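[User]
Um, tokens okay?
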Amino acid sequence: MQNPFKTYKVQIQQTLKLAYPIILGQLGIVLMGVADMLMVGPLGSEELASVNQANNLFFMMSGLTFGVLFSVSTLVSIKVGQKRSADGFITYRAGLVAALILFAFQFIILQVFVHNFHWLKQDAAIERLAPGFLNILSWSILPLLFNVVTRQFTDGLGHTKIAMLITLGGLALNVFLCYVLIYGHFGVTALGLNGAAYATLISRIVMALVGLWYVRYSAFMREYVPKAMPGWSKIKIELPSIWKMGLPIALQTFAEWACFGLSGVMVGWYGAKQLAAHAVALSFASISYMVVSGIAMAGAIIVGNKYGEKNRDQIRHAAHAIFLIIGVFEIGTALIFIFGNHWIAQLYEVKADVMPTILPLFILAAIFQLADGIQAGAMNMLRGIKDVNWSSGLSILSYWVISLPLSYLLGVWQDWQVYGIWIGFTVGLFVAAMLGVWRFYKHLQVLTFEDETDY
């Protein structure tokens, strides 16, 4: 009989080996936003709040577009488990086609908000500053989506270091460009707030070009790239697989990201100071989330491989290991949030009048990120076993039926303001975590393994 301790030790090692490049890549993505916040912060709370609201809208809509493309890594990882790695390139090419369609969708919607930002009923300064920032940012959608596809493809193959290096390089470029463009260095005219938007746009274009070149021409990828490029006949056969799996994932990610985005809109009703406090606390909490998100994405890839191999026991062992890793990490970060909240706030150079509002938010962040990590693990592993319809349904229930109404009830009706809004989405995250874990293990008991032609 196999030693259970040895089994889980191997699973934990395998997960961490696959996850750490994804984690660093995820951190690179979120640290671009954090860098913008840190470098815009000295301009004032109004500028800080404006960046937050523009990013809120951008990533709220990205929940839909990213979600569809998140299917690429799962589909590729299943092909790897089925010993059909070479077919993953067709999925990659179909993902690029899907990205073009999704770009048009997201760009049009964001332009509507650029020209009608007053719909959100924000502070006058935010309504003046945020639309310009969002307009520049909206042009980065296409390169960002192309970068998501290349990353999903290489991650699905198990080569997670590629995307990590591209993302960290993009982060370094973004920080440098923020320094140059926001404050005006090396003879460049200072652009203030919009300098951060241009820095992000340029960085995303460079990252996309590097990723596309690497997949197509690097020696390392030759075994996965056919000599004859797959034509439209093969791509159009694969596209329905992306939509079929990706649309439920999109509903799931949109439900969660929009919940946070709309919570930010509600906080904005109480002025730039509360919104700045919300932005800083949520910005730092997102660093913790990106670590567990990387672990969860690695879990989806591992579970997808085992699904392709039709190995139920290995799926179960992988899930136990992933939940254990996430739980230990989140407890550690909760302690940092609780005992280091003042130091974290000082990193962002927040004004003295914002500090009393921001410190209690870190206590709430310590609580909600525990649930956020567990639900991320559960939802990603549900994706790995193709149970995407249930995961999207659970997300809509948790965030739109429970979290948003409760945030409005406590924050607006009860006038608890930013704290009531945070309590609302914390409750929603705990519901999502509990239901996600329950559904994963329940479905695993009766799991049937589909043939490769089913998607």
